Amino acid sequence: MSTKNIELASSHVRGTSDSEKFELIRGEPIDNKEEHQRASVQGRFRKISCRQCGTAHEGKCEVSVVHDKQFALNVPIDRSPILSDPGFSAAIKWDHPFISSELALHEDEGHNWWSIIFSLLVIGLVIAGIVAAIFLVGYVDELLYWHGQRMQLEEFLQGELTPRRLPSSWISSTHFVFEADDGSLSILNTKHSNFTVSILVTNHTLRQLNVKGYQCSKDLRYVLFQHNLKSVFRQSFTAHYTIYDVNKESPFTAPMALRDDGGITTFQLDWSHPPKAQPERLQYVTWLGHTTSLLIVFNNDIYHRSSPTDESDTRLTFTGQPDTVYNGIPDWLYQEDVLQSPEAMWSSYDGTHLLYATFNDSEPGSSNPWVQLWVVDISNLTSLEYHLVLPPKALIGQDYYLTSAGWTGQKNTQVTVVWINRAQNLSIVSACLSPNWTCVETHAERALEKAWLDIQEHPMFSPDGDSFLMLAPVQEGSRESYTHIKHVSVTQQHIAVLSHGRHEVSKILAWDTVSHQIYYLATEDGKPGQRHLYVVRDPSTDDPRRLESHCITCNLEDVLWSSRYLYGNCTHFSAQVSPRSESSNSSFYVLHCEGPGLPLAAMHNAITHKFVSIVYDTRPQRWPLLEKYAMPTKRSLEVPLPQGSRAQVQLFLPPSWREELRDAAYPVLVEVNGRPGSKSVTEQFKVDWGTYMSSHCDVVYVKLDVRGARGQSDRALYHQLGGIEVQDQVTVLEHLLEKNKYLDKTRVGLWGWGYGGYVTAMVLGLGNQQKVFKCGISVSPIADWLYYNSAFTEKVLGLPTENYKGYVEADATQRARNIPKKSFFLMHGLADLTAPYQHGISLARALAEAGILFRYQAGQRDVTMSGVNQTARPMCDRAKSYADEGHHLEGVLEHVYRSMQTFFEECLKLDTEEQMKEREEKKDDAKK
To answer: What GO cellular-component annotations does this UniProt entry give (predicted)?
Structure first.
């Protein structure tokens, strides 16, 4: 049988199957096996590939011969014919060294494929085992999981990470004044369909004065700037005031100085000399109604200036005494827990009358300051008429507080005053009419059993003054009550509750009596950390759905569908609604997104809610700053409490945290408050010390609202403090530690400021009754409630003569002996007026007398104290005096936070700065 010559070509070799790979040298056929053997002995071929020809071919096979000196093709071998052809096997001498080795090699290659497959299976099993070990053990180098740099304390304290803006306001129904993205003070005009934005004051001017506040005159010609502020009490301050004239080429004037023509003062008893025309630190300045006249408070007295350019001021009150008698501004007690404003004077719409309060603190002891309300007719400054406004008959002869006041509508003949008794369980809304200004009760609110009334904002009246809206507690269910809107008709003596549900109404924004719509802010059911915009119709409409409130911002797929992407990361809102003008058929509101994303604001049509335009957007400027930091992840949840209550909890999970790190042990730091009516868990955007600690120190930072917080039941705290709300802190943390294995049970600390400092001391004072917290810090704490302000203390605990046991049980000094040694750090400013330094002294004395070793920061040094000795050592590189610092320690905040961080680094075994730097270097290496 002749064979077919096959040309040698690499393409042919690669393209044929294994059983057909035959290539001839010079076209030589090999007809039998003997020739095949001779060829192999002569070295004429390199590799053999043979096809079994079968018995019909008499054992002849075609053999491809490749000369190893001329060709370097690695032709695959078909091994099966060599092993299966008995004739070929018998003819070749298999003991030839070359042939035997080659055939053995070919035979081993079959086994190598199985070895490779087996090896791959083993490697796969090993990898699977490693992955399983990671999942089960929970060990992963967390440095690979976060990006960005750790936040530094200086970066947090600079305040650049939290956007701050000057307040915005509607000056009229068509003009909205706000701080634009470029830092200028701008006006958005809605009068025409094509809205326009114009600059009122340049950003250069605002930066030049370092403006902290402003007020525009109603005609928008003048802007009154506040700058160089210095805090006095919680709400009040002294400042320099400068008037800016928009129409002048040189709009600046020098800071205001009082120009008094002289007058009699009760404490001086002689003529006072006119002060020099130089900048004064004034207590308060504001516009008089809708005019360009000014009201000035200086040395606790009120002055009137007819115009910004007037050369003289008229003195309206003459009784002011430093630290004793206050006219037009509240005293210390009213600023702490009664009035929510730095002023206590209200001008009529036309500027012809002034309503103001006088506070007298001259009586010593436990007596409350007595308050008087006055109306003065200033239409004729040469002949002033004063009228005393008396409270309703139900309050005469007993102690009471003035909680709010104001003119009814645009009238100058009626004022509305809200009073509350000293026990704060009875509130009375009264109408006081000229000419004798006698007050008559129009509505009364009484607290539920074993509860108190919270002081609310001033009622909102209809233009005719016949009805008003107010916030009041409404019972929902058997035990819970929530703040809702009530509509009170004065003429019809009818009360209607307009909002319903298990959520808290925080503010009434506007009442559009033309469209019969009421705009307000409230939480969402089951989500107390959020705040949304709602609309409800007033009772004057015949719409059967009038009592059905509608949430505008809860579901962005509904009313705000067209702007849903704009508010995609917004669950905490506020809004400003334009005043409704009788000449305009349209109205608008500015919707502010306050978190959890970066703040922004946009204008919407108030009737259709259609998007109109962006007002400001902080995201383009602030996001690049935040993006470079390793920020914590926020997670909100609820924890069950006794009696069906549920605590609201917010976790700041550090940047290295991941869900799969189930057994990673993170230290826990808890910020406590617990003050009745307070709120800690919120979705408002804010970069605070908790954000810094979670980012920088890799701790799980916890905020929580327990019973007594706003939106929670406060009955459990009635006539008892330091009990329920303190135990709730422990209960919540025990639950979190049990359910979340990534929390390290052996490294849990807590801290608080003010009331939170009191709760911290009370928690650690549980001693062996709590096994959760290892250490804590109390900053400016309250210790003994007999020495705290009466407005708050008596509201919750009652009078000491009626509930002395409650005062004793709530005293933090009584638990000082149970605080574990070396677990407590006390910090207090000597000039604290909110929680006077006496509280810190009494708590430190109780600890020292009990022999408890603790840290104490108040003067030049951090002092470690016990009952037998005192040793001082610097906490930081340099000590800082707290002698001149108030409740918020504003002048030494960096020292305060560094001291706190150092204490927790030691107590909770946190990574030091050096260890942090080392981890950063490891992270960079891991990324490479």
So the answer is: plasma membrane
Across the range 171-175, mean pLDDT stands at 91
Q: Are 464 and 409 in contact (CB under 8 A)?
A: yes
Given this model, what pLDDT does residue 551 score?
A: 92
SS3 for 519? Answer: strand
- 227-231 mean pLDDT: 90
Pairwise CA distance, residues 703 & 652, whole Å? 8
CA distance 197 to 41: 101
pLDDT tens digits along 47-83: 444 444 443 444 444 444 344 433 333 434 444 333 3
Query: Band of the pLDDT at 809, cuts 50, 70, 90?
Result: very high
Q: Check residue 313 and report its DSSP letter.
A: B
* Cα→Cα distances 123→115, 116, 128, 133, Å: 12, 11, 9, 15
Q: Classify residue 205 by its DSSP letter.
A: H
User: What's the rounded Cα separation, in Å, for the pair 461 and 448?
Assistant: 25
> For residue 879, what are its two tokens?
């000590």
Amino acid identity of 575? A
* Percentage of the chain lying above the pLDDT 70 cut: 77
- The DSSP output letter for 557 is T
Q: What is the pLDDT of residue 544?
A: 60
Amino acid residing at 278: Q
Query: Structure tokens of 391?
Result: 């409270």
- The token duo for 268 is 């001086």
Cβ atoms 713, 480 nearer than 8 A: yes
- 909: alpha, beta or left, given left = phi > 0 and alpha = psi -120 to 50? left
Contact of 704 with 680, CB cutoff 8 Å: yes
Which tokens is 334 given?
């009213």
Distance between CA atoms of residues 54 and 122, nearest Å: 43
Cα–Cα distance between 452 and 743 in angstroms, integer?
38
Amino acid at 283: Q
Q: pTM of the prediction?
A: 0.79
The CA distance from 161 to 182, in Å, is: 17
HSE of 114 in the Cβ direction (CA atoms, 13 Å)? 4
Other CB atoms within 10 Å distance of the CB of residue 753: 23
Please tell me the distance from the alpha carbon of residue 822 to that of residue 856, in angstroms, as a whole number: 11
Helices 689-697 and 893-907 sit at what angle, rounded to 10 degrees?
Answer: 40
Structure tokens at 781: 């704490």
Kindly give the interhelix angle for 755-764 and 724-739, rounded to the nearest 10 degrees.
70
Q: How far apart are CA 215 and CA 198, in angstroms?
A: 17
* pLDDT at 108 (0 to 100): 52
SS3 505: strand
| Residue matched to tokens 């630190």 | 281
Select from 311, 342, 127 the least CA-distant residue to 231: 342
435 prior amide bond cis, ω within 30: yes
Pick the CATH number of 629-829+903-918 from 3.30.70.940, 1.10.3720.10, 3.40.50.1820, 3.10.50.40: 3.40.50.1820
How many Å apart are CA 278 and CA 240, to the nearest integer? Answer: 11
Q: Is the dihedral angle over the CA atoms 267, 268, 271, 273 positive or is it negative?
A: negative
- Name, in order, each residue with C-beta under 8 angstroms of 110's C-beta and a sequence gap of 6 or more: 79
In a 3-state reduction of DSSP, which class is residue 924?
A: helix
Reported as type and span, the H/E element at residue 604 is strand 600-605
Q: What is the pLDDT of residues 330-345, one digit of tens each?
A: 999 999 999 988 999 9
Question: Where are the domains positioned within the chain?
Answer: 10-92, 629-829+903-918
For the residues of 878-914, what is the DSSP string, one character each? Answer: S----TT--TT-GGGHHHHHHHHHHHHHHHTT---HH
